[in-house]
Amino acid sequence: MTHEDTPNAPAPVAPAPSRVLDLDALRAFALLGIFLVNVQIFVDPGMLVNQRAETGPLGDLVNAVTAGAFMGKFYILFSFLFGYSFVLLWDATARRGADVTRVALRRFLALFVLGLAHGLLLFTGDILLTYALCGLILLAARNARVSTARTLAIVLTAVIGLGVVALSALMLAMESFMDLDTAAAMQAGSLDGLLEGSYSQFLLGMYPVTLSNMLLIQGPVALAMFFLGLAAAKARWIEHATPSKLRRVLAIGLAVGLPGGIATGWLQVYAGSLSAELFAFGVATLTGPFLTAAFVAALLLGFRSRAGAKVRSALAPAGQMALTNYLAQSAVMALIYTDYGFDLSGTIHPGTAMLICLGVYAAQLALSAVWMGRLRRGPLEGLFRAFTYWRAPGWR
């Protein structure tokens, strides 16, 4: 099947070098935010069963800033870039004369298997398996018009966000005659034993719980961002994003997203109730995309300066091998915080954990630059491509 044979296919996207670097740099930036959020589960796994450890005022502040500025923001950006890149993959596959559907299905199958292994062996909060399943819906809707894809993204996000807010309001009303926090603690009590066992037992026991959360809550939000990325790529938004448009996105994004982020951080850490945490997630779902858009606009504006272009060049190699770096982050965290290695969970302050993340991320930027300076693809990216296209990995 050729590109011309595909009904309602978008015009071919010619990936200009600067645009590719923009996407890669944004993907690398998203990796940092995801890293800073994921490390919280390693530092304090009790948060998964509603039993946060006492960290003191400074630790609470760090957790609040992380929740407000990073949590629910960067997997949104990664999801948007996934949808954007899907159009590029589709176009490149069609130019080769290959079957777009068959190639995409193999890609999602590889992502599913990799995500399953990641979730069961390294990190219970894996997102790759969810991406693989949501990707099937994206594949089915790939011929959607720009306006249709954009509308689907808005409706999905609004329904999820408003639905969670409404549920939290209902729970708050029920608290007058039901002790929901105690009930939640009793429910979590059945999982307490997992925190006392080995990390492999913890992963096996928690995975069904976290997977259901990913599929039912974060999955639809990720799918919404897939659609938004699909619409943006078809409209060639990054190519056509003038400085004035980017400044407008930045202003609107900060006006809506910043208050939402502050509210989310406060509710998540200081409110201290299950309904408040649920309400915080609803607020994050509704306002997080605005703050994420502000991040993107600020970066794209910065990339257009001489100094910003150097930053983009420093980030881009890590984005080119994002899959390798994402899984490497989980491996490093498991080595530091679990009985896979030093078993330091519960002993490291959240602020120190953030500094460790920044150090590891800086090392990833340096190693990625060296690797991509000599080879064409990252280690896992080459294997991923080999399975997708049934050809040699083509690292060189």
Structural class by helix and strand composition? mainly alpha
DSSP helical segment count? 16
Low-confidence stretches are 1-18
Mean pLDDT: 87
Share in β-strands:
under 5%
The percentage helix is over 70%
Would you report the number of β strands? 0
Main sheet properties:
none
Assembly of the depicted chains: single chain
Number of domains: 1
Shape: globular
SSE order, one letter for each helix or strand: HHHHHHHHHHHHHHHH
End-to-end separation: 29 Å
As a whole number of angstroms, the C-alpha radius of gyration is 21 Å
Write the layout of secondary structure elements.
Elements: H1 17-43, H2 56-69, H3 74-95, H4 100-121, H5 128-140, H6 146-174, H7 180-189, H8 192-196, H9 199-234, H10 237-240, H11 243-271, H12 274-303, H13 306-320, H14 322-337, H15 350-374, H16 379-389
Helix pairs in contact: 1-3, 1-13, 1-14, 1-15, 2-11, 3-9, 4-5, 4-16, 5-9, 6-9, 6-12, 11-12, 12-13, 13-15
Protein name: DUF418 domain-containing protein
Domain DUF418: 233-391
Pfam family, one: DUF418
